[in-house]
Amino acid sequence: MIPFEITILGTGSALPTSQRYHTAHVLNVRERFFLIDCGEGTQNQMRKYGVKFSRIEHIFISHLHGDHYFGLIGLITSYLLLGRKTDLHIYSHSMLPDLLKPQIDMMGDELSYKIIWHPLNFKRSEIILDNKVVKVMSIPVQHRFPCCAFLFTEAPSDLNVRKEQLEKYQVPLTQIYNIKKGADYIDQNQQVIPNSELTLPAMKQRSYAFCTDTAFMPELSELFENVDLLYHEATFDKTNQKRAAETYHSTAHQAAQMAKMSNAGHLLIGHFSSRYKNIDKLLNEAREVFENCTAANEGMVIQIPQKRLV
Amino acid sequence: MIPFEITILGTGSALPTSQRYHTAHVLNVRERFFLIDCGEGTQNQMRKYGVKFSRIEHIFISHLHGDHYFGLIGLITSYLLLGRKTDLHIYSHSMLPDLLKPQIDMMGDELSYKIIWHPLNFKRSEIILDNKVVKVMSIPVQHRFPCCAFLFTEAPSDLNVRKEQLEKYQVPLTQIYNIKKGADYIDQNQQVIPNSELTLPAMKQRSYAFCTDTAFMPELSELFENVDLLYHEATFDKTNQKRAAETYHSTAHQAAQMAKMSNAGHLLIGHFSSRYKNIDKLLNEAREVFENCTAANEGMVIQIPQKRLV
Asked: Which residue among B16, B64, B102 places its CB closest to the CB of A44?
């Protein structure tokens, strides 16, 4: 199956525990790899869980609290040691290059690869990447420091052709590329054969929303509408809703409300406060509102299957 | 038993592997805690192995390659989140505060505690700390970046008094403090009772040498003479001696030579290149020269027992 797969590397909030690492998710879209947040220890976690470390080309950093970016300098260093040549694109607050500059300068050698820094816009949502496999939108959220959620939408797949129909209409090979892209076929008699007769229904474009470190923002549900997988932070349980609001975090209940309002396919909660030794309480709270909910764990892999549109 | 105990948190060299973390050792001397190097993930490893995280007062950073200090910013941040009040002493190259300054400044809040930076001297050995429990000497070594080894020597213990002798000579309670410190007792008749008649032989002062990221330096053996535990880097095996010399690292064979020349009690090797999936080769190589050798592993705890001088 063509992958659209999320690997969870860290699920804790600011204070790490013996079980939970800081935030980092890896998204594999058709064997292209995207890292979302990069807390301390991310490179170790990638090794541990067999992530294709060297193939990450784009890194998205939601905000500049340490638990979301302290692993970046180690990763940048390891890529240098490994002689990386491929450009590395980093999407973050514009301050990040300055924060890391003294340490990068200290490495002594020139970097063997180029880092291309992309400053995020914290005023409005923007398409920050649109390539062959995925479109990424940054979405400002409400936290103590400027912070963005990210919505990843798979690029449209080529259509699968129906061989028996190609034979029936004697479609020449030269036309197949266009037909896979959605074109109709016009035969020698100028008769139009609509694309729908030549191909199977398209595959649904899969999507993943990563939404961490934010107060509850019901207005985001429009942007997340029908997302296949919503990752939403659930730092606290609902008895700590006041604390959540004060610190610009969300409760498990609120994460589930967001999933429900967005009509998400599946909710994944994480970024758990270190006060919860056992997160069943948070999971149960979320499931009361939105049944199809999973609590994130280090090493968890979630595959979103392809479906045909009907 | 009064502890003099080393906990190993990371044993890898520059590139982390799925099994090995970056360098960090914790030394517990009589329940005072000292951190030596602080690679990425050190705070996670401390949690994992139950190290008394908050009680570390002194951190020693051998040099400014990332695998020896990238975990420091996370630790500094966690101490802030935990409301630490106790001063934190950091011994390192004088550039370290500047490297971390942009990130520390970014934390927004004032730190709840004071960081006291102690620049290391890379020209000659120095006593950098001498308190109630330990004396620490920094020892310049030869690496691509200025680097120090550290020698930890336990402070002399109070002597144990022999109760039957105190009774025999009718020593008043007010004199016991001085006798435990080594004083003779002069009785009412001006007769001198030598301390050795009143106390058991003293405990040997235990010692630990931490020597990482260095070319082989036979001249160090004088400074390490009779050390109880020598940790010496063994990045390579002896077939890679040329590579070791070029990169200012040591082989397992050289680490063992150092232990032998120093008359160390026990050798611990670590900082293994990621090329060695199995480090038996390195361990066997070292044991050929110095039998009492252990290969470091994450979570390993080495207790140095107290012994009386005869």
From this structure: B16
Q: Three-state SS for B165?
A: helix
* Residues of chain A contacting B17 with CB distance shorter than 8 Å: 47
Sketch the domain layout of chain A as residue ranges. Answer: 4-157+202-303, 163-198
Q: Which amino acid is at B283?
A: L
Which residues of A are part of the catalytic machinery? 67
Beta-bridge mates of residue A126: A138
Among A21, A76, A84, A106, the residue to mutate for chain B (most B Cβ within 10 A): A106
- What angle (nearest 5°) sits at the alpha carbon of residue A34, between those of residues A29 and A36? 130
- Is the complex ipTM more than 0.95? no
Quote the pLDDT of residue A106. Answer: 85
Decide yes or no: CATH 3.60.15.10 for domain A4-157+202-303: yes
Residue positions of B annotated with a catalytic role: 67
> Regarding beta strands B229-233 and B266-270, do their DSSP bridges make them parallel or antiparallel, or are they unpaired?
parallel
Q: What is the pTM of this model?
A: 0.93
Q: Which residue type, as a one-letter code, is found at position A256?
A: A
pLDDT in tens, A164-214: 999 999 999 999 999 999 999 999 899 999 999 999 998 999 999 999 999
List residues of chain A with CB under 8 Å from any CB of chain B: 14-18, 21, 40-41, 43-44, 47-48, 50, 64, 66-67, 70-71, 73-74, 77-78, 81-82, 95, 98-99, 101-103, 106-108, 144-145
